[in-house]
Amino acid sequence: MPGAVIIGAGSGIGQSLAHRFAKEGMPIALIARTTKTLEAVAHNISHTGVQVITSTADSSNETALRAALDAATVELGTPDVVIYNAAIIQRDVIGELSARAHLEAWSVNVVGALTAAAHTIPSMARRGNGSFIVTGGMPEPKPEFVSLSIGKAGVRTLVELLDQTYRPAGIHVATVTVGGPVAANTDFDPDDIAEHYWKLHTQPQDQWVREIVHSGINGHERANPLSH
Questions:
Q1: Is pTM, for the whole model, over 0.85?
Q2: What is the distance of C-alpha 54 from the center of its chain?
Q3: What is the rounded distance in angstroms from the CA atom of residue 40 to the CA atom of residue 17?
Q4: What would the pLDDT profile of 92-130 be if each residue is shown by its tens digit?
Q5: Is 133 exposed, middle or buried (0-12, 13-18, 19+ CB in 10 A)?
Q6: Structural fold of domain 4-225
Q7: What pLDDT digit, counting tens, does each position of 126-179 carry?
Q8: Strand partners, 19
Q9: Contact criterion met (CB below 8 Å) for 147 and 162
Q10: Of the candidates 186, 160, 21, 188, which has an alpha carbon nearest to the alpha carbon of residue 89?
């Protein structure tokens, strides 16, 4: 059975996503920058009994990311859901970072998601169904997080463009916007956040939304419907 591909499979949201989708019996492909990270997450879900494959790739390295996605497809087939969860999260103010540092952040926060989408969505579209979900953040831009604020604004635009392009082919493109620091046993518990991705993936098409905002207040969730 085709499964879930998780790019940015770290110890926070990535690990919770792997556990949440594996719980449903879905094979999992994990992609992260380091072998150590991959081994830890794979071990965390080993008890579920699902097939787990791992690939090391920096999401800013187009060649490596495409190769990792190809490896996942060879093993699992065209995925049911691809989740882009990679990001450079750092504090920086206007004028603090060099142009190169901004480009490095942009390459992970936005361009990596574009690469993953361009490489995986067409085959899902030919099949006629699938989900592509991106981890967003910064519901409002903050001057102490300049590169991240710009990057997450880019993610929203990318998701909208992908939705406009691929929704007619049956692909649900959406973002889960996380409005605070992720930590276990808080209002931003990664296990709670992971539930939003499963909800998006399993929504009937006539109920699709393009964004769920996990705000940490008032039940944590606000859904923004698709515009038609």
A1: yes
A2: 16
A3: 14
A4: 999 999 999 999 999 999 999 999 999 999 999 999 999
A5: buried
A6: Rossmann fold (3.40.50)
A7: 999 999 999 998 889 999 999 999 999 999 999 999 999 999 999 999 999 998
A8: none
A9: no
A10: 188
String of DSSP letters for the chain: ---EEEES--TTHHHHHHHHHHTTT--EEEEES-HHHHHHHHHHTGGG---EEEEE--TT-HHHHHHHHHHHHHHH-S-SEEEE-------B-TTTS-HHHHHHHHIIIIIHHHHHHHHHHHHHHHHT-EEEEEEEE-SS--TTBHHHHHHHHHHHHHHHHHHHHHGGGTEEEEEEEE-S---TTSTT-HHHHHHHHHHHHH--GGG-EEEEEE-SSTTSEEEEEPP-
Q: Which amino acid is at 97?
A: L
Per domain, the residue ranges of the chain are 4-225
Strand partners, 213: 177, 222
Sorted by sequence, the CB contacts under 8 Å of residue 26 that are 6+ apart come out as 1, 3, 4, 50, 80
Hey, what are 222's tokens? 């606000």
